[in-house]
């Protein structure tokens, strides 16, 4: 193996991209810090068992064995380590965390996907109120505004909605399961076959529309009229509506859509789920939701929690990468060090040129198309 | 908004073009393509022509919104995008085939040659058998004839290639056809366009039946 090659699925980042990535991460972290969130840093290496609640088909981790034969993984997720910290340390709740770091998931080889992805996010633990979802969403929307992300769409959904609708429909467990699988996979051909025997039922128009129950908020809600009225469903819809109105009150240009046909991202999600994208994005820019079951993998007691993670790489791909301004190099004699340093501090995109001769400094300035300030000339 | 579609070139393309045309898409540029691979003339539908496994890659990386590709490739590549419509063209099936003297019940770790190692693996896992798989890139029928493998798992359309090579089918695995697959995020970004395309295709399918 050549010592010049990178392992498949990894990449170096430098120059403008690396700087934009740093700026994006800083914008997110500064915003969260200013809102009174506290920083949490967890290790890259964790025991594999920490990530048991993640559905196996959604990720493949990098694994290694420690000196006792226990399996370690490079963390494939940032939220479960926070849950581990909470259950192991007895930190008082409520508490608000922010974090940033890389997660690792092995993707299909040679597919152009990267196995190391940078995230930054927040966790609000200990608040059962809808206000926790709202702080998450308002913070994320504000950050996207600061990052000048155009035409942002936030999609709201609920982890319980599909199961609750299936429970009120007069169909047996097997049918429920089959319908759910086809619905989540958006396998329209199989789904149409499954609902065919229910053609004469009064909720058939709803079933027919269900795989397409996403998009414009009001249009989706209109499709619910044929559903049996149930308090559990009303509560979910009520919270989603309130959240949409709240968001649009604070961000009038934001598009808020609704998805009532989607699978919960992970089993531990218990309530509202949110995702955001822009029209030009190739990936979701942030996603999160309420996961009151999150800590139940580590402890007996349930702890309300809401969180959200930004996909920093997807956001960086959305940022206009500007050409850096012309660089300035400052050449000086050792005794001029203090002056050179003071000058450098006042000139943006400048740096000290550390050659021993003015000629060599000129050569470097030409190579880099940089402006050269030669302090030795000033002295003369 | 324009829908970007990757169409599997070759047989799949030929079989699916009449359906696309019946759904209202002008495919004349593709029909008279010469060596062209990208078709951007229609403001509503941009097409690229690619090999089946590459259609899945373009779709995964969001280079296109929609892929039209065989369900054999989707199964082999363990597709994670929305497999929305069975277009019911290019229908064939997977089969386990071998020479007439092959005994499927023989107690040994069988050697199976195939272009589809994942599908083969999951089939034998399902029936509780462990086999050795040899990946072959083409003319898989050769493998049992020259003694490289005990049997093959391959696509069978009419069965004539197998018969000509003195091979017979022992078990039929899953059916195969051409599917319309949609990138998960593109479905959200271009909902109304994809809804319309899917409705038009369904209508065209019903007319053909």
TrEMBL record, chain A:
Where located?
Answer: Cytoplasm
Q: One short Pfam family name for this protein?
A: tRNA-synt_His
Q: What is its main location?
A: cytoplasm
Pathway entry: Amino-acid biosynthesis; L-histidine biosynthesis; L-histidine from 5-phospho-alpha-D-ribose 1-diphosphate: step 1/9
Name its species.
Answer: Agrilactobacillus yilanensis
Family recorded in the similarity comment: Belongs to the class-II aminoacyl-tRNA synthetase family. HisZ subfamily.
Q: What is this protein called?
A: ATP phosphoribosyltransferase regulatory subunit
Q: Which HAMAP family match?
A: HisZ
* Gene from which the chain derives: hisZ
Going by the entry's taxonomy, the superkingdom of the source organism is recorded as Bacteria
From TrEMBL, chain B:
Q: How does it assemble?
A: Heteromultimer composed of HisG and HisZ subunits.
Q: What is this protein called?
A: ATP phosphoribosyltransferase
Pathway terms, separated by semicolons: Amino-acid biosynthesis; L-histidine biosynthesis; L-histidine from 5-phospho-alpha-D-ribose 1-diphosphate: step 1/9
Xref: SUPFAM superfamilies: Periplasmic binding protein-like II (SSF53850)
Q: Which species does this protein come from?
A: Agrilactobacillus yilanensis
User: Subcellular localization, per the record?
Assistant: Cytoplasm
**Family note:** Belongs to the ATP phosphoribosyltransferase family. Short subfamily.
Domain comment in the entry: Lacks the C-terminal regulatory region which is replaced by HisZ.
């Amino acid at each position: 193996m050549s010592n010049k090659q990178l392992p498949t699925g990894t990449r170096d980042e430098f120059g403008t991209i690396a700087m934009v990535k740093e700026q994006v991460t800083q914008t997110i972290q500064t915003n969260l810090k200013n809102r009174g969130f506290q920083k949490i840093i967890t290790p890259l290496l964790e025991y594999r068992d920490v990530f048991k609640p993640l559905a196996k088909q959604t990720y493949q981790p990098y694994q290694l064995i420690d000196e006792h034969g226990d399996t370690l993984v490079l963390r494939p997720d940032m939220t479960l380590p926070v849950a581990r910290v909470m259950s192991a340390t007895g930190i008082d709740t409520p508490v608000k965390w922010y974090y940033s770091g890389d997660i690792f998931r092995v993707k299909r080889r040679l597919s152009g996907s990267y196995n190391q992805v940078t995230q930054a996010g927040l966790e609000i633990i200990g608040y059962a109120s809808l206000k926790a979802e709202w702080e998450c969403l308002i913070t994320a929307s504000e950050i996207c505004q600061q990052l000048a992300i155009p035409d942002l769409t936030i999609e709201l959904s609920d982890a319980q909605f599909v199961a609750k609708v299936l429970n009120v429909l007069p169909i047996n467990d097997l049918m429920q399961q089959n319908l759910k699988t086809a619905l989540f996979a958006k396998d329209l051909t199989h789904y149409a076959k499954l609902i065919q025997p229910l053609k004469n039922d009064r909720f058939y128009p709803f079933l027919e529309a269900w795989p397409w129950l996403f998009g414009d908020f009001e249009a989706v809600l209109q499709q619910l009229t044929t559903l049996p009225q149930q308090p559990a469903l009303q509560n979910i819809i009520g919270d989603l509506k309130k959240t949409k109105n709240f968001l649009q009150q604070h961000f009038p240009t934001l598009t808020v859509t609704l998805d009532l046909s989607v699978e919960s991202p992970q089993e531990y999600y218990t309530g509202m789920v949110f995702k955001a994208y822009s029209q030009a994005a190739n990936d979701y820019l942030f996603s999160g939701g309420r996961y009151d079951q999150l800590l139940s993998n580590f402890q007996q007691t349930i702890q309300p929690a809401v969180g959200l993670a930004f996909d920093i790489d997807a956001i960086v791909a959305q940022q206009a990468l500007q050409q850096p301004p012309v660089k300035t190099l400052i050449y000086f004699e050792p005794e001029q060090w203090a002056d050179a340093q003071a000058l450098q501090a006042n000139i943006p995109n400048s740096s000290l040129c550390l050659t021993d001769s003015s000629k060599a400094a000129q050569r470097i300035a030409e190579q880099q198309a940089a402006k050269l300030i030669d302090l030795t000339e000033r002295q003369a | 908004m324009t829908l970007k579609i990757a169409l599997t070139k070759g047989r799949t393309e030929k079989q699916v073009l009449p359906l696309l045309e019946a759904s209202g898409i002008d495919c004349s540029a593709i029909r008279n393509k010469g060596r062209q691979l990208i078709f951007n003339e229609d403001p509503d539908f941009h097409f690229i022509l690619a090999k089946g496994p590459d259609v899945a890659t373009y779709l995964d990386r969001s280079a296109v919104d929609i892929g039209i590709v065989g369900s054999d490739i989707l199964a082999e590549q363990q597709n994670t995008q929305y497999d929305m419509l069975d277009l019911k063209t290019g229908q064939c099936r997977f089969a386990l085939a071998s020479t007439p003297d092959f005994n499927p019940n023989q107690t040994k770790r069988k050697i199976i040659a195939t272009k589809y190692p994942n599908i083969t693996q999951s089939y034998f896992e399902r029936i509780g058998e462990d086999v050795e798989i040899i990946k072959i890139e083409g003319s898989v029928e050769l493998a049992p004839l020259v003694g490289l493998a005990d049997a093959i798992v391959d696509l069978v359309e009419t069965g004539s290639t197998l018969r000509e090579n003195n091979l017979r089918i022992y078990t039929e695995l899953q059916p195969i056809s051409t599917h319309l697959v949609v990138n998960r995020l593109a479905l959200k970004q271009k909902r109304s366009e994809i809804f319309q395309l899917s409705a038009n295709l369904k209508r065209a399918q019903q007319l053909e039946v």
